[in-house]
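From: lab user (bench 3)
To: helpdesk
Subject: output format question, protein + iron/sulfur cluster

Hello, I'm new to running complex predictions and I'm not sure whether the block I got back is the full result or only part of it. Here's what I submitted:
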Amino acid sequence: MKTPSSHETKNYPTWMHIMREAITSTKELETFLETSLTQTPYSLFIPRPFAQRIKEAGIDSPIGRQFIPHAKENIKDGLEDPIADHLYSKGNGIIHRYRNRILFSPTEICPIQCRYCFRKNELGQQDDIFKAKRKALEQYLQEHPEVEEVIFTGGDPLILSNSKIDQYLHSLANISSVKMVRFHSRTPVILPERIDHDFIQLISRYSLKFDIVSLVIHTNHTSEWSPLFLRKINQLRALPINLLSQSVLLKGVNDQVDDLALLFKMLVINGIRPYYLHHPDPVKGATYFQLSLEEGRKIFHQLKKRVSGFILPHYVVELPNGKGKALAFNSQNFNSDGKWIDKDGEWIENPF
Ligand code: SF4
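Helpdesk reply: Thanks, we reran it on our side. This is the complete output you should expect:
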């Protein structure tokens, strides 16, 4: 995990101050929380205001478990690249897995280090996936007019400054084949200060230049939310953008039906449409968050009975070897032989 460089933080706003002062080592975190913790090989990054909330909730709370290092991270099972991003990497931060859309990773910086992250073995590794170049992105899109949507992922794209985001959106708005842009971000929840006036203005302006601008907010539990987050969401929902959520089903965090039902209802009440509930990927160093598909399906089945259909997200699982997402709870995606349909519409043997 990197922090913003001194160059980037010249005249920096409040949220960048918070980033600069974040807790970045186990020792610092032990002092802050007044407890002893296990050292793991993975980086640590927690903004102090969020660390304070973890301190109040406890390290075994749903927010503590997501961000505090755990001894089980030292277990060596699991995969370094569970969704096979590298098979589809085109270099310069571009991942082209589906025909009409690309993922673009303009940064490897995040507002926090999630212990379950599917990229936890890649972030901070100087990986090619994160060596983003704007000119190369423009050239790729010009050579691939079939791409209609650019999905900013990371790291976390909202950690870029407003002027950087402006530059990217300006470039994309001048490429006529690009109709939609989407941001996947954990920042509004972890560092709501980042959703500042200029950002709101920027997104509002660009919402008129694309057919659809989407913001997919990553949140796993309502205890992550603060009053400031809710105020910022109130401002965002007034914009003509598509506000969506994605969550990861995590053992010991949100694997209780009550917690998930509350999360998805509260999202809808606050103007955010639940989009994806991801089955956890078998990530090296994070397998202690895993549930079996059978366990996940039982939870989702209960959830279906508890909330209306418009509140339910898609429960999805990443098929191995980069075969894409499939609905984890849909009889059309597995037949009696245990076969699944991959992203290209091909039947594949049960990979689980
Ligand atoms: S914010 Fe997203 S990319 Fe960053 S550590 Fe968390 S899950 Fe991973």
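A quick orientation on your result: The first strand starts at residue 89 and ends at 91. Let us know if anything else is unclear.
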